[in-house]
Write a structure and sequence with these properties.
With 411 residues, the protein is α+β, with helices and mostly antiparallel strands. 34% of the residues lie in helices and 36% in strands. Among the domains are: 87 residues, conserved putative lor/sdh protein from methanococcus maripaludis s2 fold (Beta Barrel); 94 residues, Efflux pump adaptor protein, beta barrel domain (Elongation Factor Tu (Ef-tu), domain 3), CATH 2.40.30; 64 residues, RNA polymerase II/Efflux pump adaptor protein, barrel-sandwich hybrid domain (OB fold (Dihydrolipoamide Acetyltransferase, E2P), Beta Barrel). It contains five helices and 23 strands. It has a six-stranded antiparallel barrel with strand order 2-11-15-13-12-16. Strands 3-10-8-5 form a four-stranded antiparallel β-sheet, with no helix packed on it.
Length: 411
């Protein structure tokens, strides 16, 4: 009996302790501070998705003047920034060596022409005259040998000449006949087809050399091929320049484009015609506009990045955007003028399923949503919320948002 009473008192104390603990936690729950939450109202707004990157300005048509030979600069008639009409003389090089090469090339063409004429007309005039004289002489010798042979044959028939004399006369005739035939062949076809082809090739080579020499002389003075702006001069009078050195650049700066470099993951978002905003650090308050005219066809390595090259047409460009400058390019890949959206910090994801914490009667309610287009700051809501709802974007004390927790809204 005493043991039963002792056990009853133990259970009584245990029950009292449990009750005290329950009362403590309930009281703590009822009296604890509410979670300080920042909230935002769901509403419609324009949702723009952009992708920024870097690019380089270049003229649509860029006329570059390279030195055609190693020489010195004789004169420069313009300054960087000058607007010049088509045909204006811009720069002159020393062309003494070029004219000497031209004279040598002209002499080579004349020599090749003479050789070609000889090959196609069976020799030079002197050779043809000599060949004609040889033919006439050989014909006379053949005729004389025939006359002598006929006379010896008659004498042999009369018994006045021996058979050996007849054989000797016949041998002289055969030799004269062969010599005449050789002279006639030489007069008619002195050069073989292979020799004629060689002469033709030599003439073509000499004419090509002459054309190149004339081109070098013509390029020794540079005139503006079109009206435009001189935006680069890389040599001064009396400077020695090597063959191929870039000396001057000219372009119409009202027709420019930007070669932009987009990272590989962003290439799939690009399309011809998408609008572009262009910024240059030298004029931060100014911007230019354009559109994509060519999307990447391959991926290249640009520094440490894998990028695609995009050509951007600058719309209504003026002379303020200089060639070869580095610019910032921002493309608008999508735009929704009246999208129901929330800030991206209000969006959460669990197992690939998006949700938000909607504020309902000073509590957080976990609400699944369907999302659409998103950018760096906003995300479109296709279902799950309506215009005028309030959602939590975070807490002011760093505590994670939880469903069912009493809150107080902070601004």
């Amino acid at each position: 009996m005493a043991d039963r009473e002792q056990a009853g008192r133990v259970w009584l104390w245990v029950g009292a302790a449990v009750l005290i603990i329950i009362v403590f936690f309930v009281a703590r729950f009822l009296t604890r501070d509410r979670l300080p939450v920042r909230e935002v109202r769901v509403g419609h707004q324009e949702l723009i998705n952009t992708v920024p990157t870097n690019g380089r300005v270049e003229p649509e048509v860029n006329d570059q003047y390279h030195s055609p030979l190693a020489t010195t600069v004789k004169a420069v008639y313009v300054q960087p920034g000058d607007h010049v009409p088509a045909g204006k003389l811009l720069m002159v090089l020393d062309d003494v060596q070029a004219r000497a090469r031209l004279a040598t090339a002209e002499s080579g063409v004349k020599a090749a022409q003479a050789m070609m004429e000889a090959a196609t007309h069976n020799g030079t005039q002197q050779e043809r005259q000599a060949a004609g004289a040889d033919t006439v002489r050989s014909q006379l010798e053949r005729d004389q040998a025939r006359h002598d042979l006929d006379a010896i044959v008659k004498l042999n028939a009369a018994g006045a000449a021996s058979p050996s004399e007849v054989a000797a006369a016949r041998q002289r005739f055969d030799t004269a006949e062969a010599s005449l035939h050789a002279s006639q062949q030489s007069a008619q076809s002195r050069y073989s087809p292979a020799e004629i082809d060689k002469a033709q090739a030599a003439l073509a080579d000499a004419e090509a050399g002459l054309a190149a020499a004339r081109e070098v002389v013509a390029q020794s003075s540079y005139r503006a091929p079109v009206a435009g702006t001189v935006y680069g001069i890389y040599a001064e009078p009396s400077d020695f320049v090597e063959e191929g050195k870039l000396l001057l650049q000219l372009a119409d700066l009202k027709h420019e484009r930007v070669r932009a470099y987009f990272d590989e993951p962003d290439i799939g978002k690009l399309a011809v015609g998408q609008p572009i905003q262009i910024k240059w650090n030298a004029t931060p308050s100014q911007s230019w506009h354009g559109h994509i005219v060519r999307t990447p066809s391959t991926v290249i390595i640009y520094g440490t990045r894998n990028v695609g090259e995009v050509l951007v047409q600058v719309d209504g460009s003026d002379d303020d955007l200089l060639p070869d400058t580095n610019v910032t390019v921002t493309v608008t890949t999508s735009s929704e003028p009246n999208a129901l959206s929330v800030p991206r910090e209000a969006l959460h994801t669990e197992n690939g399923k998006p949700y938000v914490f909607k504020v309902v009667d000073d509590e957080l309610v976990r609400t699944p949503v369907t999302i659409g287009t998103l950018n760096l700051t906003q995300v479109a809501i296709l279902s799950g919320l309506k215009d005028g709802d309030w959602v939590a974007t975070g807490t002011s004390n760093g505590v994670p948002l939880q469903e069912g927790v009493p809150i107080k809204v902070v601004r």
